[in-house]
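Subject: Protein entry, chain in single-letter code together with its fold tokens

Area: Proteins and the way their chains fold up in space.

Attached in line: The record itself begins immediately under this heading.
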Amino acid sequence: MVKGRQLQDFMAVFKDQKPCGLWPTGRNDKERPLWFKKNLLHSDLNDNGESINGQRKQGTSKLDGRLQEKETDLRRKKPNYAKLPPGPVPSPIVSNLLELGNKPHKSLAKLAATYGPIVALKLGHVTTIVISNATAAREVLQKHDLIFADRSIPHGVTANKHDQFSVAWLPVNAHWKTLRKICNYHIFTSQRLDAKQDLRRLKVQKLLTHVQESCQAGVAVEIGKAAFNTSLNLLSNTIFSVDLADPESGLAREFQKLVCSIMENIGRPNLADYFPLLRKIDPQGVKRRLTRDGGKITKLLQGLIDDRLLSRKAKDSQRKNDLLDALLDLIEEKFEGFDWNDIEHLLL
């Protein structure tokens, strides 16, 4: 540990150095490395070894105490890797990322055969535990589900603060329980699902008709696109009572384009998820694109909400009895713990 006069010599040596071209030069306190300020400049000494009030510092006990506290804090924050499950030794910087290869499921199966059903991997700077055994999975997902209910939030999901309002990403708390209760009652009850049975049958029939007509015309069918459009129309009718995958609607085409872009960016591997230091610069631009597309799709949804609000005020209006009507009823009733932000992010 650097003490007393050695501290001043230490600072004098490194004050004007520039290892790797990253450290600043000069004697100005503002130009010194940040870690100097946080860890060493609490000694109340200036460059001449004098205290701030102009008197010579008589002892270093106060400084030693602060440095010891800092060292203790660092030791406490250091993870205990000895308690982790077995796994491959991580490489420098990239750790075990390269071991996943282009077929991660096969790579993980090989690792499980080598190290057992529970494997610890270091993906960049993120420690990941992989479970590939039914018994272990049952322990995590059933017996201790509350402990493991919270998700690690990808960097892209934080766009437009979606992680703070979405029921899919919120931690288990009072707000999450409120949103879950609303979803269970207005979406997933057997009564609600049975009420939309005819709608589901109609959308599936349209899909079959489209496939049959394409076959008769000798036109290739993009199964993925056709299934996506059917699912999107089913969801949009359940929520808004409109088709958002209608090729003849400009709004539907824009909405579909934005949804595809968002799904593509969320599913894309992001370096910022494995190296948290990169989150501020967003090197792949994932969060920037999601912020842009999320803002556009929020405006489209807000337009649908405004149209519904106007129609509800009309004298001859008829209720759609869809999810949007149910959510607007909660807003009018001033349901506790539920506001407009929750509606926008719930519909996303």
About this structure: The first helix runs from residue 4 to 15.
